[in-house]
Automatic annotation (TrEMBL):
InterPro entries: 4Fe4S-binding_SPASM_dom, Aldolase_TIM, rSAM, rSAM_sf, Sulphatase_maturase_rSAM. It comes from the Bacteria. The gene is ctpM. This is Radical SAM/SPASM domain Clo7bot peptide maturase. Transmembrane segments: none annotated. PROSITE patterns: RADICAL_SAM (PS51918).
Amino acid sequence: MKPSYYNYVIENKNGNGDALYYNMRTGSLAHMEAKHHKEFVQFIETGIEISDEKFLEELKYCGFLIEDDFDEKKDIKIRMLNSRYDTSVLSLTITPTMACNFRCTYCFESGHYSNGHMSEDTEENICKMVEQEASHLEKLVVTWYGGEPLLAISPIERLTKKFKKICKRFNIEYSASIITNGYLLTEDVCNKLLDLDITDAQITLDGDAKIHNSRRPLANGGGTYEKIVDNLDKIHGKIGIAIRINVDKENQNEVQAVVDELKRKGIYEDVFCYLGLVTATNGSCSNCACMSSEKYSEFNLNFWLKNDMPLASLYPKPMGNYCGADYAQGYVIDAQGNIYKCWSDVGVMDRRIGTVRDWVESTKKMQVSAAQTQKVLAEYMLYDPTEDAVCSRCKFMPICFGGCPHSRIENNQLCEQYRYNVGEFMQAYADAVLKQERGMHHENFSATCDSEM
């Protein structure tokens, strides 16, 4: 037996010789009592066998201890390939219009706005695309995106009805969500979305009214904060709501105002707040206000702890693939029927991989060259962190996979926030579990595992 390369140990967390163990390949977390920690360290340093059979089995089950001939990188690669090329789920992010009623200062779609809506011909081709994939699907997952998708509710209604008919015919599970700025998400619109089985919405607030309105104004320069909060006041508890707070150096002192306001209005308990790091995507954020990943990781954890948020939602789990961009059946479709791998590429013509018309007609008159399609797909789909010269040597690789594929391609930027604060996060998570365990059972939290295997 040998210790896992992906063990992460925080020693002497309570000053009594005990330790906190986290394994990045399996996702296991364990609080080791001093005697067990000492025994494990002794085994690593001297080879003296662990005599406690129960403890030994726990170490093996959680992945802290592995067989001598077990190759962890191969295990990670197998999981990656299984996840990346799973054919049971089709994930579509659909942009029914590139029109937007906002002019956010950091928008990466600036320059790609268009007032047109998706044509019924494009809608029909999308449905044919889904039908061609339907025979091997277990689930169809749709995310409505923009622009501002609520400016084009008619295509959403028509496509949803057609998708649901296809899913019923092929016995496919259907789920849908929407990413909206929230300005048009009135109670009536919310009810319409629920009728369409759109059960979750992401809405962005960037601080108090002053800072939010300066960052996310209407196209005519008008404010948006009061309208969004008023809508939230009427719809919270009806539809699942995630409040994204985009953060950079300019508003980092104002993000708490969002939580405080939602609490004052009795909305907070029915929504899920989280921070989003503003990045310089497609040339946006030229004012250099973006935080570094290291600074953001510290800021984000402090935000979660201050607001007593469920740390399980932030728990760094081992990945199979990073996102829809490196998932074989993840596609983004714009209002003209262009297909992309990443929603950050929407509107950038040389980042297309095809069109829905090409897809269903298999026409020889391709609107996107084979070379372009191959280049984009190769960048997103062929990257392998287990073979990368930097990532393959990194203990954080199983929970990071090289970070955002788009950032890696566009900015040569690797890494997720966890590499900077995984110790602090695991400490906070373990303390929260310990507090809960004591509250429920009045017992000490000893050498046990929360395993993701």
